[in-house]
Every structure is written in C-alpha cells, then in structure tokens.
Amino acid sequence: MTLSVTLSADEFPQDPDTFYLNHAAVAPWPRRTLDAVTLFARENVTRGARHYPRWQAMEDTLRRQLCTLINAPSPDDIALLKNTSEGLSVLASGLDWRAGDEIIITDQEFPSNRIPWQALASRGVLLREVDISGPAPEQALADAITPRTRLMSVSSVQYGTGLTLDLLTLGQACRDADILFCVDAIQSIGTCVFDLQAIQADVVVADGHKWMLGPEGLAVFYCAPALRERLTLHQFGWHMVEDAGNYDRHDWEIARTARRFECGSPNMLAAHALSASVSLLLEVGLQEVGNQLAARTAYLDKALRNAGRGQMISPADPARRAGIVTWRPDEALVPCFNRLREAGVVCAMRGGGIRLSPHFYTDYPVMDHALALLLD
Fold first, then answer.
1. Whole-number pLDDT of residue 2
2. What percent of the chain has pLDDT over 70?
3. In sequence order, what are the residues at sequence separation of 6 or more whose Cβ sits closer than 8 angstroms to the Cβ of residue 291?
4. Given this model, what pLDDT does residue 6 score?
5. What Cα–Cα distance (Å) separates residue 89 from each residue in 48, 62, 85, 181, 233?
6. In what order do the strands lie in the sheet with 325-328?
7. pTM of the predicted model, to two decimals?
8. Dist. CA 70–CA 192, nearest whole Å
9. Are 332 and 352 in contact (CB under 8 A)?
C-alpha cells in the first residue's frame, strides 16, 4: 500500500487542538480500531457471546498478524499476554537459575526490563547493568559476557535517548557465547521491519499500545519452541492446557504451543482492537512505515540541531534512531514541558529532556507547532 496523503485525516481524525508526539508512550488508535471496538461492544450488548467461535477465530487472526509483524516461525509461537512486564516475568521466573548466574542488561533500561531481573537477587543471580553511552554499545555489552552469563536482555530502542541497538550483532554475540537473547521490542515493533529470526532472538515481547497503535493490556510474547519447553510455569488455568475446550476432563497436560503462557480467559476486547490496528500497519507495509517515520524524526532532529541552542540527547546517526527525538532546552525543563502541554502538544519528559515521538502518519504542521514552541 502506498501511503496516502489523506491517511492521517481518514484513519487519525485527531482534534485540531491536539498535536500528538507521544507514540513512544501511549498511541492514539486508528479509526478502524474505534470501529472494531464499537462493533464488538454492540455485539456484546445485542447478542452477548452467541458467536464466540467467531471471536476465537479473530484471536487466531491476531496471532497470524503478529507472527507476520515480527517474522516468527509460526503463530503457535505467539502468546497473547497482558503487557511487556508479564512477558519478561514469565521468562525471569521460569528459568532454572543457580546462585552465581549473571544477567546482562543496559544501564538505560525502562523498569520493565530491569525489575524482573533485580527480583532474582534473592536466588543469588547477579544483574550487570552495562554502560552503553560510549561509541560502541554492542561491544560493551558483548565484552560484559562471562562464563557465568546466562542471558542478555535489552530494549531494542532505549526509551529515554532513542538509542537503537544493533540486534543482529547482539544476537550473534549471544549465540557465540551460548546464552539466551531476550529483546524488549516495545519501542521497535510497529516502527520498522522487525525480524526475530534474523536477530536470533529467543524471546521477544512488546505491548501493543505504543507503535502498534493498539490498546493497553495486550502484548505479543514470542518464545522459541525449545526454550518454552524449559520454562517452569507459575500460573495455571483452563486456557493453558492442551485440551482447553474440554471442561469435564480432570487430567490435563500443558499446551504444546505458546498458549501455555495464557492461563485464563483472553482479553477479547483488546484482541479485536489490536488486530484492527496491526492490520493498518500491514496494509501500509513496515518498510513504508519505517521510511515515513525516519523522514519525520530526521525533520525534527535537523530543526533542533540547527537551532543553535539546547542539546540533542538522541543519536545523530540515523541508523541509531527509531521514532524518538529527545532534546534538552537551555531553559528549565519543566516550564518548557508545561508550555508545550498547555499549547496542546502531547509529548513527554524522558532521558533528561523533551521527548518527541511522531509516527509514520504524523502531519508536518503538527511537528512545526511543537518546534515553534521550543525554538521561537
């Protein structure tokens, strides 16, 4: 699909007094997602779960969509969990840790990719937070691997600075060292082509409410088949068994697919919403999404760097950027942020600066409005 000039107005009819540059936090839904949720709600009101098998079929559709979005080997490898934190906790609590084991993360991680690993300290597991502020972050992470290292878990894009890591290099480093490679991809999936097989990831997890343009409360969790057999489960229920539809059966076995990580009833409302949102990304094409988003981040980056004041926190190299541009003004940060907010600019304070995060559909006048407030 070629990006239409009317796409923003058709799919994202945001209020004229709202200038949305906060997709790295919580994204607005497309119109089609509103339509999908409205239809689902109306069906619940008028028919209840009369057509529940159709809802289950839609859930299967979502698994296939997400499989395509991240290039998983099979939809059977996709679990639908509540959020990124739950997915990382499934991994952290499921592995057979031994005292002295080590985990490597970066020193810029969002708490979702830090707290589950810190919680293992009581089991004698050491968490090593690697400084990635230097010119070769991947080398710094690889150099931190020791014979005791069991796992490396990194965010594909750092939420504060927008630094994008070379996952191909990190994945190979993990393979060479025979350790597990986990990727928190919440700031990547939906911004560009993402290929978990190419990066040799064992686990990929991401909530859908950022760049996938979906609701909060539903995340994609990929776990390599060989690894999921090794993870000890700590949540159990009717949905995670192989014969999930047989409610009278008293003996049971764990589902062979990634559904084993879904212990209870699915979030059907969120599934309908996320499926609609992901359908838009797939129609536009992730390569086109990436191209359009790169053009917008470059536009913001150039304007702010050329302003002659303030400090750019995000990387200068386009290959190191995703959808995040973080800039520190010369003036006090909080008054600057409040001025933007009062003028309708939706953004965030992160990484010591003002974080602007457009998406592929963001109109340039939206960015110009924010830039005028920052630079005029």
1. 45
2. 98
3. none
4. 60
5. 34, 23, 6, 15, 11
6. 311-312, 325-328, 353-356, 348-350
7. 0.95
8. 10
9. no
d(CA 355, CA 372): 15
No. of helices (H) and no. of strands (E), the chain: 12, 13
Mean pLDDT of the chain: 96
Which residues are CB-contacts of 373 (< 8 A; sequence separation ≥ 6)? 339, 340, 343, 345
The tokens describing 343, both together, are 């003028």
What does DSSP say about strands 203-207 and 219-223: parallel, antiparallel, or unpaired?
A: antiparallel
Does the pLDDT of residue 5 top 60, yes or no? no
Is residue 118 packed enough to be buried (19+ CB in 10 Å), middle (13-18) or exposed (0-12)? Answer: middle
Residue 163: per-residue pLDDT: 98
- The first and second tokens of residue 274, run together, are 């996320």
User: Comparing C-alpha atoms, which of 303, 290, 298 is closest to residue 359?
Assistant: 290
Q: What would the pLDDT profile of 31-70 be if each residue is shown by its tens digit?
A: 999 999 999 999 999 999 999 999 999 999 999 999 999 9
Burial of 205 per CB tally in 10 Å (0-12, 13-18, 19+): buried
Token look-up 């600019």 returns 345
Element housing 364 (H / E): helix 364-375
Q: Are 362 and 13 in contact (CB under 8 A)?
A: no
What ranges in 31-128 are assigned the alpha helix state H? 31-47, 52-70, 84-94, 115-118
| Whole-number Å distance between alpha carbons of 312 and 129 | 24
Confidence of residue 1 (pLDDT cuts 50, 70, 90): very low
Give per-residue pLDDT as tens, 113-164.
999 999 999 999 999 999 999 999 999 999 999 999 999 999 999 999 999 9
Supply 173's token pair: 């480093």
